[in-house]
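Entry details:
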Amino acid sequence: RVGSGPQQSWLSSLPRGVPRRGRAVANTCRSTAPSAPFCVGAPAAAQAMARTLCPLPVPLQLCFLAAFAAPTVAEDTLFSCTVPSYYSDAQLQRVLWRNCARVNASVQEFRTLVADNASDDLWAYIGGGGSAAAAAKQRESWSQRAEKAEALCLNARLEGSRGTRQGNEKAAQLAVQAWGDGIMNGVECCTLLTPPYCTLTSWTSATILLGLPFAVLLLLLLASVCARGFELLRSGQCRRRVWQATGMPVEEAAAADLSAPVPQEEAASALSSVGGLGAQIAAGIRSTFMGIGVAVSSTVDPLVRQLHDAMMERSCLRGMPCAKQFADSYTRLFSSLQLTFGFQTDNVKNQFEHLLSLWRSQVAMVADRFYEAQLPVVEAKLLEEAIGDIHADLLEGFLHWRERLQSYAPADLGDRAMSRRLGGARWTLPALPGAAVDSPASAELATAMAEIAMYLLVWGEAGNIRFMPELVYLITELALSSETLNMSALSKRTPRGADGDSGLFLSKIIRPIYNVIFDEWYDAVEGVQDEKDRKKLKPAYAAFLPPDVANYDDWNELFCDPARFVEGLHLFDGSRLFELPQGKRFAALLQVDWKASLKASETKTHREVHSLWGVFGSTHRIWLLHTALFAAGVVAVVGDPPTPPDGWQPLGGGPTQVRYAAVGLLVPFHAMLWFLAWVQLRGSAMRPRTSCLSVFTNAVITVGCLAPLATYSVVRYLAEPGEESRLQAALYAHFIISGIGLFFFLFIPKTWSDYQLWPATGTPLHKRYVRYVFWIVVMGSKWLLGTYIFRAIYLTMLELDIAMPGGMTMLNIRRVMHSPTFGADVLLWVLLWFATYFLFLADTQLWFTLACAFLGAMSMLAQRGCALVSYTFEDSIAKIPLRFSDKVLPEAYRTSKSKQSMSPSFPAIWDRILEYMRYEDKMDNQVMSDLSFTATDAGRKCDWTQLKKPLGLLSMQEGAAVGSAGAADAPAAKRMKVPELFRGKNPVELAVRSACISDPQWPTNPDVQWRIFALARGLGLNVPRPFRAPYIPGITVLIPHYGESILMLKDELFKEGQSEVPLMHWLRYMYDSEFMAFTSRMQARQDWPVAGSEWA
């Protein structure tokens, strides 16, 4: 940085990596003409070489020119650098002082260098390696330049001392000439009052290099946009696309793997219509559920018998009223659906047991509602009401999806109850007391039972298609509304098939869909003999899927949008699936051209790009909010800039309101970035809307996004003295328009059907209020603290004395824009503010965590009734028996609450908890004895057989004795004691035991401690009312089973030649207390050897 400050000279600023000779030549060249860095008076060959090397960066030019530098001195050149006439006297004095200070510092350093180097070696190097005489001549030349500069500064001070305007102007001009002409040889002009103070008289390669990073970023942006544009043009997405069938002939399609259409005559017989159901519900019930479909043999179907036995012999539902009627109805329904649609027999059995598990849990939930209302349980209604609850919970998504599909007129979807033909499956409704078979209640029950059964069977067959639940819904709906169906006629196979053979539904409905999905990503399936099959991805997909390859999300979005899949599902002949009558669509699934219907160009709505566009597109509102807060904070801390002497407005604006108006420019800038991200991320299936309303809407949005540019231009035009009234009106308009744009981007995301497949979940106003208050507090606190950081960064920039473009006028920027010093200052300015912005953006997670921690503490206190004192000082562990009895065993406890301190059942339950932890080796016999109510049995054998036994009546009676009389008055037959753990302790004793003295009765195992603490904390909350036996629901989760070896053989643990078993030693080291408890438990067995650590 040559001559950028009073303490920097042309010699001290040379790069340290340049040799002494090269540094001298570099100084001479930089002091002469940076645009053509050659030394005045150099040989002609050197001058020609310099002109050849001009396109190269300055450091490379200096290296080549060092060998050609001549020892001659530069002659005086004409120098033109005028001090602006509009400077005040004080400003002229500043110009005088700054230039002469630079001259004095440079001359002093030059003379110090001369005094420290008496020999001619240094000057010989500076002179380009010439003779000593040439070096002396070069030194003499520079001495003359120093004397000339000092003389000019002396004259400038004399002129400035007169105190007149003319004298100050002449003094400033002499000082500028002293530095620019005397020292810098006409290269630099220092007439500016603000950083960088000086400017070069011509462009340099260094200036271009400093602008290179910004040019690279701009080129990358343009390359990304142009590449996407070329992709759109090449793929033809800018043109209207017309669906085309695969063109596969019928004969070739019939030979294709698993997805061939059936012959026309067989398809015609399978698609034959049986007419409507009629308008009356009773007729619909009789025809739909009792008389149409595949004939069932008069003999008992083996599958019906197996399903019937699963409910009436192995399920606890068998004792419920009307259980036999429901079993008869549901078993025939499942069996008939299996025969009609070709479901796999094992799938039918599995899903029937799944239904029984759901049914049993839901019966308990229904009975609990009677308890909640303090009404007697009507068991005759439990099974029926449970079916309705299962239907509402299990098929909630299906019902919403069907309602949306029914509202789309081209789908031509009939009423649910009137369209449940089930392909003609034959079954009977359960004969319930007090309900006629043709009543609306029976119709509703029949619809619910049929939809539950069909959905479970389709879901069980779906395999990986389950990742697209809306497609499962579609298949379920088509199967429910299908007319008379004969799958065996379609495939020339029996519906049930041989053992181990794929069912017709799997091979003809599911597998063709999955084949298309498989071919989208994979080449083949690899596997050798008994090895597990491995799917081999396509070569280009090994690292990641390309942006335009369809995946499960894209296909599922297709079936979420009725308008898209109704128009997009085509048959092999080119017709649409939904052009057929509703009852014939399921059979036509075999004719659907899935490859054409599911191709990426028709289903891809969002491109998974591996770039920052994807990050910005999904989080653009976060970036906008932080950028707006950051810009407002910077404007607030910078303050009003000084009035420029040239009369121009600073680049960032002068008055405070004008500088805040610049924040509104974020709206068009963000709109441009969001539009570019949308172009990058928009999938091929997102076709531009061409309706008049959409065009008008897009035009309004475009004008609204660009309006802040126009209003800001008006504001800057009116930001002149005398235009205050008009400026205020323009500012109001600009702030209103910019505020609307910010509000639109932050609070009103895209709500069109292309972007929102499902309506947003409604949020109560009080919750929305709490959310906004939370984020206002978080972001407000973050912004207030951020302003202190912004202020510190701004003061640091002032101390660095660098150029800040926001406070400079366009006139000054044009003067200094070709100066390397200005380019370096701008680069440093950008880096400092960018680092500050990044930190401001990154610490949001910290503020969010702090706010959540505070809310969590407040929520905890609110849950405990704001009883802060009792929560802090109470002995919650000692209150476990009382609270457990009151909240977990309320019925048994309330009957004897006035006489006992705990429920009679609690001691036996607590001891069983200890037995489980002893079985898990979380404690040894001594700790179990200290914590148990039955001290004499503390060391008894704890195995799984014992733990599976129910708690005995004797234990309950003994617990009653403890609860009523206490430990001292317990029966002598079997000594009972209250553990020391449950003895109440005052706060002082608790503090001493937890901080100073270890409690000998307190378990040392961390897991046991955590369990006890968690139980005590949980009982301190409002525990929901427990379920009452026998109506206790279970947890039903149907997941695939993966074979996995979790046990290790001795040969796997111990290898020949090893003196130790590493795994066993590691277990002992990591779980020392559990391992000691395990050893003590196993040593009680007769067959366990006592061998210490000799595991071999």
User: Anything to note?
Assistant: The radius of gyration is 44 Å.
